[in-house]
Amino acid sequence: MDGNVFNLKSKIEIYKAMADAGASFADCPVRDVIQGISGKWSSLLVMALSEKPYRFGQLRRLVPDISQRMLTQTLHDLQRDGYVHREVFATKPPSVEYSLTDLGRSMFGPLHELIQWAERNHSAVRDARAAFDAAAT
Amino acid sequence: MDGNVFNLKSKIEIYKAMADAGASFADCPVRDVIQGISGKWSSLLVMALSEKPYRFGQLRRLVPDISQRMLTQTLHDLQRDGYVHREVFATKPPSVEYSLTDLGRSMFGPLHELIQWAERNHSAVRDARAAFDAAAT
DNA sequence: CTGCATCCCAGATGATACTG
DNA sequence: CAGTATCATCTGGGATGCAG
């Protein structure tokens, strides 16, 4: 009820009407917000930061196969969208700590549910893929 | 409690340990499952199909700015992961109906919560972006 | 109506080297 | 330590034309 005036059926049709009317990509909440957190590394980093704040190098070690470039860029994007707070400490050498903002923690609620679903149903998805590929042979 | 043996802290560290041990990309549930539904069009199509089954052309009209190629490919991928059922009717000309499977409906639960969060907080994210960009000037 | 094949481009990602 | 810059690469995605 709150903040969600439309039921599901009308929602998808409203998006269509918006698109038909020439509304830009950014006007569709689903695409605009979901795309911002659906990058290759975004969900993993938000998940890590949901636990506690981390420094740049710590995050890097926590996700061993991320490149320095992608770690910098993904954190930058998450910060721009308001999910992550970046704090610089003028030590020597300098250190930078990343943490979730209130908005980030709020978003992690639903995201966490999706992550838990993924963990519970990982094997089901893998089985479906295997079955599909086998049938295609 | 059910089906989720690890608390959040240990989870991210377990993923790291897995990666350190040389586990492949596909062994991380977060990446393997989340990536499959984080394509540019996946969430939108699942959202449409959660309402009711649709035919190919109907989906195309519902999402006006998707190309035929991407519609075919995204539906194919969703079917491969077990979220979507594809049924061909031998009419003339032929028609094909797409619908969510039980797994797809199950996955849409958490996804829907994320979508609702996106709708509720779309403006907050946009504001954060605007503020960030303004500060960078 | 539905779907596949081909060509092609822009953006996403990675590897490496360099800097405050 | 925490980046930035540059170059190379890989993939997603669009346009178009053909086919069952």
Automatic annotation (TrEMBL), chains A, B:
Cleaved signal peptide residues: none
Superkingdom assignment: Bacteria
One protein family per Pfam: HxlR
MF-aspect GO terms: DNA binding
Occurrences of domain HTH hxlR-type (ranges): 28-126
Keywords (A to Z) from UniProt: DNA-binding, Transcription, Transcription regulation
PANTHER family in UniProt: TRANSCRIPTIONAL REGULATOR, MARR FAMILY, TRANSCRIPTIONAL REGULATORY PROTEIN
Protein name: Transcriptional regulator
